[in-house]
Design goal:
Elements (H helix, E strand, L loop, with lengths): L1 E4 L11 E4 L24 H11 L3 E6 L1 H17 L4 E6 L15 H20 L4 E7 L6 H10 L4 E3 L13 H12 L1 E7 L28 H16 L5 E5 L2 H6 L4 H19 L5 E6 L2 E6 H4 L11 H10 L9 H7 L4 H9 L6
Parallel strand pairs: 3-4, 4-9, 5-7, 5-8, 6-7
Antiparallel strand pairs: 1-2, 9-10
Length: 358
Amino acid sequence: DWCDLQGGYRGFYSKNTVKLTPKVVNDIHKRGGTSLLTSRGGHDTIKIVDSIQDRGINQVYIIGGDGTQKGAALIHEEVEKRGMKVAVAGIPKTIDNDIAVIDKSFGFDTAVEEAQRAINAAHVEVECVENGVGVVKLMGRYSGFIAMHATLASRDVDCCLIPESPFYLEGQGGLFQFIESRMKENGHVVIVIAEGAGQEFVAQSIHDVNQKDASGNRLLLDVGLWLSHKIKDHFTQVREMDVNMKYIDPTYMIRAIPSNASDNIYCTLLAQSAVHGAMAGYTGFTVGPVNGKHAYIPIARVTETQNTVRLTDRMWARLLSSTNQPSFLNSCDDILLQQERVDRDTVDMIHKMKITST
């Protein structure tokens, strides 16, 4: 029998389970969200493994992002310690695409596709007003893959800001100067910012910057709203220019929609790989494509680090070429080095980087 434990790790403590049959799961791929329900926190390794033992479960499939996969690794370790014959399989799930080793995580393609709708809306709005400035905040706590790919796909973005690439607002080569020059050139500007970008600049009066949620993730400030206010204040008070701000936050619209065809196929492959691995006697593994080939990866391997945008990769260089935005490195190398956000080798490589092919 197959059953789902609802509500994330808290489901292990509940007696209520849902038996899964072909009829029950027949149409779930056509709906957004998750029929399993989800929650943050609630992980207690000993209690979870006790529940697995008491219920007589011999296969556990754990679906989630890097935090969930870390929990799966702990469960696997405890299962091994007790000598239980239980297969523990992880299935990576995060639209942020920040899970290491694998090529991408499911939901990412759908998120990028939907993010373009928000960008298009911002572009239409700012084109219809004088000195229009559109700010679109997209998901991306520690990595800017959604923002980067949506920017490249839309071709309507003037500047993309991500956590991996620090930026500054004022002075020569700063964001304000770029916005002003782009408004003089086109009459409007569209900025895409990942939710984790620029957190060090945001006023900490909203809440403690080190405050965390139930899963141990640092709570992020609303950088999109903060940036919108900063731009408005700068141009109205300092530059004495009237600007029309348009702020769009499509976070839950992007996450809640049904998956597209690409992700539907990808999910099927992940599910089949996970089941085949467990049935073959493997345990403590995560499934996913590596260099285009589906592989079984030790869970501990994918939790060692996070997948982030590399500023020296061709994809980021293509984005800079597409938007013609400043790299924000030339005038603030010292600041970046002090912050240990970009090392000297990375700065030098970006300065020397030239597009020779597309």
